[in-house]
Amino acid sequence: MKKLLFLAVAFITFTAIAQQKGYKPGDKAIDFYLKNIDGKYISLADHKNAKGFIVVFTCDHCPYAIAYQERINALDKKYKGQGYPVIAINADDSTDNPEDSYSNMQVRAKEQAFTFPYLLDASQEVAQAYGATRTPHVFVLQKDNGALIVKYIGAIDDNTYDPSAVTKKYVELAVDALLAGKDVVITSTKAIGCGIKWKSKAN
Fold first, then answer.
1. Beta strand extents in the chain (DSSP E only)
2. Predicted confidence band at 19 (pLDDT cuts at 50, 70, 90)?
3. Tell me, what's the pLDDT at 200?
4. DSSP conformation class of 196
5. Contact 152, 184 (CB under 8 A)
6. 94-108, pLDDT tens digit by residue?
7. Are 146 and 52 in contact (CB under 8 A)?
């Protein structure tokens, strides 16, 4: 009986630890230094005048990510001038999905006329630190006395395949609230998309 109780407690503890991976709203996020599609390396610290960021983990092959390409571009065009630029990151392992290779990222960015940096998280360390699991998966960050505070995590909106049927634009609601000096009401939603393809230990 004691052994069963010990195993039950151990399982609950392990589950709790697993659920704590990544960020929660209110946490401080790390900066990063990743390669952009133009070959230059970019960090959030480079954006001196930004008030915050719309960090989007995405990729090339996922139909959900593809469905949101235009909307991600629109977010950057709407908010970059107001201090919240989009920073897109591809953390997918391209071993099984060659479409997600760096060279194909360059092609996709050109085809879609991306107005934002599209960075390669080759080590997947940034995605793991943030707790990104899907493509797309959004983290809205706000600068606060030198720190990057997570204000929203989750989906872009509530309808992947029909933009005209969207009723909740979660990212826009969050950024609009921050720009108005208000609290973000919806701080997290479930990210809907393909699971990020993680590297195997053998890689």
1. 28-29, 34-36, 41-42, 52-58, 86-90, 118-120, 134-135, 137-144, 147-154, 194-195
2. very low
3. 83
4. P
5. yes
6. 998 899 999 999 999
7. no
Strands (E) across 70-198 are located at: 86-90, 118-120, 134-135, 137-144, 147-154, 194-195
Three-state DSSP at 119 gives strand
Q: Which amino acid is at 97?
A: N
Token pair, residue 24, equals 């929660």
b/e burial code for range 102-139 (CB count within 10 A of at least 16 → b): eebbbebbeeeebebbbbbbeebebbbebbbbbbbbbb
First-to-last C-alpha distance (Å) of the chain:
42
Judge residue 14's burial from the number of C-beta atoms within 10 Å of its C-beta, 0-12 exposed, 13-18 middle, 19 or more buried: exposed
Q: Collapsing DSSP states into helix, strand and coil, what is residue 54?
A: strand
Rounded to whole angstroms, the Cα distance separating 28 from 45 reads 14
Is residue 65 classed as helix, strand or coil in its secondary structure? helix
